[in-house]
Design brief:
Rossmann fold; signal; 49 strands; six-stranded mixed β-sheet; hydrolase; Actin-crosslinking; hydrolase activity; Trefoil (Acidic Fibroblast Growth Factor, subunit A); CBM6; 5 domains; single chain; TIM Barrel
Length: 957
């Protein structure tokens, strides 16, 4: 008698389509098991032979947080390459390393939370380093390339499953979980959604992550746009993963819902499929979902829909077909090809902003390389641990020879004196233990900063000489002679233990602040050295130096004794060189990072002084900015200026090769560089149209325009031809390298509506191409642009509309450096008046506004408009058709809150004033009517007074 072999369940049958297999697996899961799948850390189902799963693996520019990995340039640097082929290859390399690391460590996830496609609307956003560009088309082109690389090219099985961050209209860290982005419909469709849409439609995106903020008064984690927009763009199942802690924010910080059960149910129904909350502890989310089910806020069908989308990703990753998974054996990690690609990406990301002939540097040039970042290879929050590194100093040593390069970091050398006349002292430290060493014996910075096996600082009569850097706004770091930064561990003691400032809460920053005496006076009372991570000042205890207690009575009064200024060291090095290279910029963990926006475009004063000292000593000064964001520098500043984002492991080598002319710079700015803080809108003003933001609408003179970047070569443009056809426009031209070295040119195609009926962009990118040309070589380029690319969102019709009329076609080297232009007439639709008698007006569909913001009409869907701060606001609706034969005789407003609505035509007197009495709550709308006589097509002005929320205006005749 032979043993019976149970049949293979359908979900294990690779011959069946994924949809049928998912149906089968769903039918086998219990209700409890399905609920458990909703947390980020999905448990195994041993009875079905299903392993555990985790959503989320950071891979923004390399595999992050999982130890040593190839580190590529920051995302904004990849955006600066304007090179989709390169970015696709970077995505491929990153996904191969994810797979290789996964084979060794099952904590490495295949659902990667990358890339970030939030638009770089405002250069003071702390997370500027994570995005690609201020332009939606460039952003979506780079994001699509990266996701294709992450996905892989197998028709069935994905190498990794990328999730786009952060949905939607998210550009501020200040109050990021409680602030609302007011986004009018045109900005929503033409700007913020556009960056996501092209990447999703390209078919290489597994899902999205909602952002912490609210949009139009409603948290992104319950956004109706997930259903109405995102999931309407594709027939693929898209996985929506919450941001960390955001589900709890719906109640705890945003107070949008009264209970966590209600909030969790609303997020799940809106489209969130995986809840990232409470770390690895799934029990709170499971309890909330079960509670919502008991209360009737959820159905089992709601749970099934979310689990289905998660399972769809797992099937596409080959989890259930290990024998067929083409990526299972991927072992490409830190290969020569990946190292070469990291250097190529770093080289192609460098942008030459200005050059008065000092670059490239000739062989044999005596160089002084100075500045706070001259011997640094900085990492950011989403970097992996460096396997290799090169700093600008090391790159210049390698390229020009150490004997031709002199270095001065430019830090201030100080002693820290106590009130007793002694000085802070770093005691001798033992060698690092095996526990704090990583691969190849490298020290692990994450462990170093929190070490408690090192002796704390003490005091003595001689002290330790510290390198002090002021990173701006009084934020200081102090570094011991052996290169270790002062840091505070959990026990509260100061140690020289950190390789670099870092961590979610940076423990290596301090502030020197005047100490007040008993009468509150600060003059002559000395200073406190306040540790910013704990918020407490430093004190000297019998067993070492630590932070003070809660009452700060034991705080120590200190003074800095300056031994040498950074400016003096820089001036000495600069005076003896033929060329000075000042390397300035930011530390990605200080001023401008996740959780912290910048407050100014200016370089920190310390670095401005170093630059001034270098220029005073040697006019042949090159400024190399290494930063995660733009700076405002002097328009008549150094002889040459370059910018690169933090370029990963090959940053220094790349910079040296560009300075030497071994590589011709070909990067282009992915966002506008403004000349002054006064040029910027408020950080929370998301109306790029109304406040004329980004190169699309900005009417001032930028410091450096979008798309700008110089070359050591020169290029001519010719043969512009434009041909219109069925459904599109073909633009062609010829570009020739008229210089004497091989170089890349980034050819940029823009358009401008010549006589639009509404405000349209000054310039709008339609396409771009990065081409490499030898001296004298030419390239014939063509761009096929669909007619839809010329359309705008017509709020009067609630849809896209191509407007008939002339459009400028502009081809050049930046948004302002236009080399070729012509005008083409396009046939579209004529403008039509708003049919207000038939449909009325949704309040948010205004043409212009002042003093108002958009808020949520209900918690689930819809918009309303309210005066900012409950004051006064104005709305303009153009070309409203009130009809003929008597026209309109009455008006109604649907609103909540309390206040008045005043209506006038064509700027005339108030014709109707409607009063809304106080309603029970913001979502309790009432309808109030009045007489209004209007006929024909007129502009309607609506004035709002008081804290009311206007949802709709209706008309009768």
């Amino acid at each position: 008698m032979t043993a019976h072999t149970p049949p293979t369940p359908p979900f294990r049958d690779p011959r069946l389509p994924f949809a049928k297999r998912i149906d089968d697996l769903l039918s086998r899961l219990t209700a409890e098991e399905k609920v458990s799948f909703l947390h980020q850390f999905v448990p195994a189902v041993e009875r079905l032979g299903i392993g555990a799963f985790r959503t989320g693996q950071e891979a923004l520019h390399g595999v992050a947080w999982m130890g040593p990995a190839t580190v590529f340039p920051q995302a904004v640097g990849l955006g600066a390459t304007w090179d989709t082929d390169l970015v696709r290859r970077v995505g491929e390399a990153v996904s191969r390393e994810v797979r290789a690391m996964r084979a060794l460590d099952d904590r490495v996830g295949l659902n990667v939370w990358s890339p970030t496609v939030n638009l770089l609307r405002h250069p003071l956003w702390g997370r500027n380093e994570e995005g690609y560009s201020e332009d939606p088309r460039l952003t979506s082109a780079i994001a699509t390339a990266y996701t294709h690389g992450l996905r892989g090219d197998h028709p069935t099985y994905w190498r990794t499953a990328p999730v786009l961050k952060h949905w939607l209209a998210h550009n501020n860290e200040t109050g990021r979980d409680v602030t609302s982005s007011s986004v009018r419909p045109r900005v929503l469709h033409e700007y913020d959604l556009r960056a996501f849409r092209a990447a999703v439609e390209a078919g290489a995106v597994a899902g999205v992550m909602p952002a912490y903020n609210l949009v139009n008064g409603r948290p992104n984690h319950v956004s109706p746009y997930l259903r109405e927009q995102l999931r309407a763009w594709t027939e693929e199942e898209l996985l929506v993963c919450s941001d960390a802690g955001a589900p709890s924010n719906l109640v705890d910080s945003e107070h949008y819902f009264d209970t966590h059960e209600e909030a969790t149910a609303a997020a799940l129904v809106a489209g969130v499929d995986s809840f990232t909350d409470h770390g690895t502890d799934a029990s709170p989310i499971v309890a909330r979902v079960e509670g919502a089910l008991r209360q009737g806020l959820l159905t089992e069908a709601d749970i099934d829909a979310a689990v289905r989308r998660q399972l769809s990703v797992r099937f596409r990753l080959g989890e259930f077909d290990p024998q067929d998974d083409p990526h299972a054996a991927t072992g490409e990690f830190d290969t020569p090809a990946h190292r070469s690609l990291a250097r190529e990406a770093a080289e192609r990301a460098i942008v030459l902003l200005r050059n008065d002939g000092v670059l490239p540097l000739a062989d044999g040039t005596r160089i002084a390389v100075v500045g706070l970042l001259a011997d640094e290879c900085k990492l950011d929050w989403y970097s992996g641990t460096l396997l290799h590194r090169s700093t600008p100093l090391e790159g210049l040593y390698e390229r020009f020879g150490a004997e031709r390069v002199e270095f001065a970091e430019g830090v201030d050398r100080v002693l820290v004196r106590t009130s007793a006349g002694t000085f802070l002292k770093v005691p001798h430290a033992p060698a690092a233990t095996d526990e704090v060493r990583g691969a190849g014996g490298a020290l692990d910075p994450a462990l170093l900063a929190g070490r408690t096996d090192l002796p704390p600082l003490t005091t003595d009569a001689t002290g330790t000489e510290f390198a002090l850097v002021d990173w701006g706004e009084g934020v200081l770091t102090l570094r011991a002679p052996d290169g270790r930064y002062l840091s505070v561990a959990e026990d509260g003691y100061l140690r020289a233990s950190a390789d670099q400032p870092g961590g979610w809460v940076v423990q290596e920053t301090f502030r020197l602040e005047p100490r007040a005496d008993a009468d509150g006076n600060t003059h002559g009372s000395g200073h406190l050295l306040r540790h910013l991570g704990t918020g407490r000042p430093v004190c000297v205890a019998a067993d070492g130096v630590r932070v003070a207690g809660p009452d700060e009575e034991d705080a120590e009064t200190v003074a800095l004794v300056l031994l040498e200024s950074g400016e003096d060291a820089v001036a000495r090095a600069a005076a003896g060189a033929e060329v000075v290279v000042v390397v300035a910029g930011n530390d990605p963990h200080i001023h401008g990072r996740e959780t912290e926006d910048r407050t100014t475009l200016r370089l920190p004063a310390h670095q401005e002084r170093l630059l001034a000292a270098a220029r005073a000593a040697n006019p042949r000064t090159v400024l190399a900015l290494v930063s995660a964001y733009p700076y405002a520098i002097e328009a008549d500043g150094p002889a040459a200026v370059l910018w690169t984002a933090h370029g990963g492991q090959a940053a220094g080598t790349a910079l040296a090769r560009v300075l030497a002319g071994d590589v011709c710079p070909g990067g282009r700015l992915p966002q506008t560089w403004y000349a002054d803080d006064a040029d910027l809108p408020d950080l929370l003003d998301y109306d790029v149209i109304g406040s004329r933001q980004t190169y699309l609408y900005y009417e001032g003179t930028p410091l450096f325009p979008f798309g700008h970047g110089l070359s050591y070569a020169s290029f001519s443009y010719a043969d512009l031809a434009v041909r219109t056809g069925e459904g599109g426009v073909r633009v062609s031209c010829t570009v020739t390298n008229t210089g004497d070295m091989t170089a890349d040119e980034v050819v940029q195609l823009y358009t401008r509506a010549v006589a639009p009926s509404v405000t349209r962009p000054r310039r709008e990118l339609l396409g771009h191409r990065r081409v490499a040309l030898a001296p004298g070589a030419s390239a014939a380029l063509s761009f096929d642009v669909p007619l839809s690319a010329f359309a705008f969102w017509d709020v009067s019709q609630g849809r896209w509309r191509l407007e008939s009329g002339p459009y400028d076609v502009l081809v050049g080297a930046s948004s302002e450096d236009v080399r070729l232009r012509t005008t083409v007439a396009l046939e579209g639709e004529a403008a039509a008046p708003r049919p207000v008698r038939e449909r009325g007006l949704d309040a948010a569909d205004f043409d212009e506004q002042s003093g108002v913001e958009i808020v949520d009409r209900t918690k689930r869907a819809g918009d309303a408009v309210t005066p900012v701060g409950g004051g006064a606001g104005e709305l303009l609706y153009r070309a409203c058709d009130f009809g003929t034969d008597g026209g309109t005789t009455g008006v109604t407003v649907t609103a909540s809150g309390a206040g008045t609505v005043r209506l006038s035509l064509d700027g005339g007197p108030v014709l109707a004033e409607l009063t809304v009495a106080a309603t029970a709550g913001p979502y309790d709308h009432v309808t109030v009517g009045a007489a209004l006589t209007a006929e024909g097509v007129r502009d309607l002005r609506v004035g709002l007074r008081g804290p009311l929320r206007l949802a709709h205006v209706g008309f009768s005749g």
